[in-house]
Amino acid sequence: MQHDYILITLADDDEDDRLFFTDAFDELKVNTVVNTFKNGLELMDFLNHSETVLPNIIFLDLNMPILNGIECLKEIKKNDKFKDIAIAIYSTSSSEQDIENTFVLGANIYIKKPSDFNELKKILADVVIINWQYHTNGLNKDNFLLRL
Amino acid sequence: MKVYIKFDFNTVCNKILEEKLAESQIKHRNLGFGEVEFLEKVSQEKLRFFRNSLQSYGIEIVENQKAILIQKIKDAVVDLVFNEDIAINVKTSVYLAEKLELSYGHLSNLFSEVTYTSIENFIILQKIERAKQLILSNQLSLTEIAFQLNYSSVAHLSSQFKNTTGITPSAFQRIIKKRKENTSKN
C-alpha cells in the first residue's frame, strides 16, 4: 500500500489473545502499527488524550472488565471526533443477536475469534485491505458492514 | 596521461533529454528541474520508446505511472458499475483493455501488485456497493437489482453479497434501518 502505516488499536482483556493478535499483524505484508489495551477504560483514555494520533481501525473485545466492548462502541459512536475510525468487534461470541446488535450500534466489522493462527492472519489481512478500499475509494462508510 | 573532467549534470541530462525527445518525435516543452510537458497526446508506443531510450542513461520517468494507471482502472470500473448506459454485456476485461489501451494481463498484474487485491475483487466490491445503494433506496426489488447489475439470478447476487460482506441482503437492509431508527431516537 502506498501509505506508510495503518494504525490499529485493540482492546482485549485476554493476554494470549492480544499476543496472538499482534503476532498475526507482524506477519502480514501490510505495514501496521498495533497498540493494545487491557480494557475499555484504558482504550478510551488513549483515544480521548489530546495528543493521540487516532487509529484507522479499532478492534473491540465484547467481554472486558471495567468498560466492556458495547459500552466502548457506544461512546466512540457518540463522539464525532472518531467518525472516520472503523470499528471491528473481535469476540468469541457467535450469537446472531450479539452480531446484529453491534452492527445496529454502529460497528462496521464483526469477527468471530478464530482458534487457528493462519485463519486469523487471513481475516485480519482481509479487514485491513477492505477497510483501505473503503477509505481510498470514497465508498460510503455508513454502508460498510462486514462479518467474518 | 590523465585528465580531469568536470561535469555539469544539469546540462548533460537536459541535452540527453532533448535528444531522446527529438528521437521519439514527441512535441514538448522542457520546463526545467526535470519536468517536461508533452504538447500532444503521446501514444503508449512512443512513450515506451522514450522511456526505454532513457533507461541506459539511468534516467527514468517518475510521474508514478503506476499510481496513475491504477486510478484509471478504478475509475473505469466504477464507471462501468455505476453507469447504466455502458453496454451491459461487454466483458469487463475487454472493456478495461480497450479503454486503457493495455493488455488485461498487464493491468491485472499491476493492480494486484499495488493494491494487494485483484481487479476482479475490486469489481465485486463496487457491484456490491452499488447493490447496497439500490437496496437502501427502496425503489427496486432484489430481482430487479440483480438484473440491473448483470447477475444471472437473484441467488447469484445474494450469494456474492453474502460472500463479500458476510451478511445477507435482507440482514443488511434490516440493520441499516434499525440503525437509522436508533439515531433518530437519540
UniProtKB/TrEMBL annotation, chain A:
It comes from the Bacteria. SUPFAM superfamilies: CheY-like. Residues 7-128 form the Response regulatory domain. Pfam families: Response_reg (PF00072). SMART domains: REC. GO terms for biological process: phosphorelay signal transduction system. The modification 4-aspartylphosphate is found at residue 61. Gene3D superfamilies: 3.40.50.2300. Keywords: Phosphoprotein. This is Response regulator.
TrEMBL record, chain B:
Residues 96-175 form the HTH araC/xylS-type domain. SMART domains: HTH_ARAC. InterPro entries: Homeodomain-like_sf (IPR009057), HTH_AraC (IPR018060), HTH_AraC-typ_CS (IPR018062). GO terms for molecular function: DNA-binding transcription factor activity; sequence-specific DNA binding. Keywords: DNA-binding, Transcription, Transcription regulation. It holds the Pfam family HTH_18. Coiled coil: none annotated. The keyword Hydrolase does not apply. This is AraC family transcriptional regulator.
